């Protein structure tokens, strides 16, 4: 039993575990999907209502209409989901590319966010929308198209796990989630990452904001997470948590430690 039930609303697939307490909304990264949060679910407060979306173009969620979307386009899709599910306010947890989406949402809809958590945040590359992708980004899109998702995931999953050779179960969880990515959703997300500017949105935040990162993350290293944390205005800047022995797939490799970090009381500076 996963603990989730699958639903759809506003053109988006999402997983939900009902609860009468706070609402947690979980946003996955570029190589993942909603069910990737399953290892984390048992560690979250049982009273919490937990919602994990599959971003536009992932799972059964409809892709966005723009070939090269921006973080604000994903934020607009999330706003529609909030409205469809009658979510008044929520704690928003964005992992990797999901941190770009979450920050864009919180910067524009702060009244709907009681707290933002940026986990292993991807800062974005800041290129002009519609400009050229880096060779690495374009090759990832090409590889997915030509090799298929299974081979794509098999070649990349281990890099997301710290000391992957010692954690084959975590690697398998990551590989399984990544093997479900597809076009055009992945390509749209890769382009959004290319033009993303997380630090710009972080500077505009007006909600309590925490940052969590794995000490062994080689995809979005701790130094980048520290930059994201420092960019948040001091009055809203909460905890910075470095999780030892965890890589980029932090909530899959170290779900208990990740949940503990989420439970920390945010105390922004006065």
Structure description:
The protein is an alpha/beta fold. The protein has one domain (5-263): Alpha/Beta hydrolase fold, catalytic domain (Rossmann fold, 3-Layer(aba) Sandwich). It is 36% helix and 17% strand. It is built from ten helices and eight strands. The chain has helices at 71-84, 97-108, 135-147, 149-156, 168-178, 185-195, 198-203, 222-231, 250-253, 255-263, and strands at 5-9, 12-17, 23-27, 49-53, 90-95, 113-119, 209-214, 237-243. An eight-stranded mixed β-sheet has the order 1-2-4-3-5-6-7-8, sandwiched between helices. Strand 5, helix 2 (97-108) and strand 6 form a beta-alpha-beta unit. It is globular, with a radius of gyration of 17 Å. The termini are far apart. The model has no long low-confidence stretch (mean pLDDT 95).
**CATH-defined architecture:** 3-Layer(aba) Sandwich
- Total strand count, please? 8
Low-confidence stretches: none
Using the CA coordinates, give the radius of gyration. 17 Å
Give the overall shape, derived from the CA principal axes: globular
Question: How many structural domains can be distinguished in the coordinates?
Answer: 1
SS-based class: alpha/beta
Q: Could you give the order of the helices and strands?
A: EEEEHEHEHHHHHEHEHH
Biggest beta sheet summary: 8 strands, mixed
Q: State the CATH topology.
A: Rossmann fold
